[in-house]
Amino acid sequence: MKPTKVIKQFVFGTAATALWCSFLVACSTNESKKATPGYTTSTTTTRTVASAPIQQATITYEAPTKITPFEPAGSSLTPANLPSSETLQRLVDEAHQRFVNDNSGKNADYIPYLASVPSKLFGVAIVTVDGRVFTAGDVDYSFSIQSCSKVFTLAQVMQEAGEEAVLKKIGVEPTGLPFNSIVALGLHDNKAINPMVNAGAMASVSLVKANGADDRWQKILTYQSKFAGEQLKLIDEVYKSEAESNFRNRGIAEILLNNKNLFCDAPEACDVYTKQCSIGVNAKQLAMMGATLANGGVNPKTKQRCLDEKHVPRVLAVMTMAGFYDESGQWAYTAGLPAKTGVGGGIVAVVPGKMAIVGFAPPLNKAGNSIRATEAINYIDTQLGLNIFGAPHVNARISSR
Known about the structure:
The longest helix has 21 residues. A hairpin with a 4-residue loop joins strand 1 and strand 2. Helix 7 packs across helix 11 and helix 10 crosses helix 11. It is globular and about 55 Å long. Strands 2-1-8-7-6 form a 5-stranded antiparallel sheet, sandwiched between helices. It has a 3-stranded antiparallel sheet with strand order 3-5-4. The protein contains 16 helices and 8 strands. It has 2 domains: about 55 residues, no CATH class; about 325 residues, Beta-lactamase (3-Layer(aba) Sandwich), CATH 3.40.710. By secondary structure, the protein is of the alpha+beta class.
């Protein structure tokens, strides 16, 4: 028996919307009449829809057939039964070999320094929650972290001020527009609405508790180094190059401040954010930062807690919704992993409770995402069946195709 259809009335702010809803209710009623014999509707202005008496149905669920775990696509992964070291190293090597000759895309050139980075560089790394490291290619090359840093400043604000501060003062909704969009501000009352776009990242920087610009910068650098498990450094050439050309970000910061959506001076927020994006990391360090999130906020190498475990799902949710710029929906649809990209060529993807996967290659697509890094991470993800939206047996089937 089909379940009864119930339509609730909602109150909308405009007459046009109300008329539209009335039309939908009428259409729904007509469809229901055709589909269900004896179906009647009330004629009151509330447009309540009645139905035939409900009969309780008994629903039984059949257990899925047992699936024998296999590699590389196995059963549910836990720290106790992660893939073997041999499997993980093999997949890292395969991912590197498969895509090393992909010459598509081009380096970011709106920051002059980034245009000069050798485009042939390509590295792949995995760090597991039990601290194992697997690498291939140019994993020791220090590149600018760029927007990947936004994840960890968001974590810092959550740790200091709590989740509600992020929700109320910044927001967590995707913009659907480029990461440096000014139009997005205008569409949302000149509020950032997401920590993964430039406006939201500068708002995050402004929320870090500090006594002035130098203190704010040092606190951010120290916190991101804690995630990496070793001291990170500013790439001064990147900072100078970006600071000389970041007019758009300066304008965004002023708009935020003028609308009381920035919480320190605009030049300070913009400059510290620019330094944050100019932090140097290599693929192994970035993978360790991601693995710290995968490990519930505890660094697998140092065993230090960087973020309270209760905040980790919130950070990963924001990464999933907006971490791939305006291709985030496509990435979630195909890969199903929380991830963050940066125009420096790095991408970090987090498999909660399991590992982090990092790719690095400077050439980007039109959305600003590294092409080879995306391909490498997606390959490993598919081979291991890591998609967080699929049950283990579903992932196993997908990855065996």
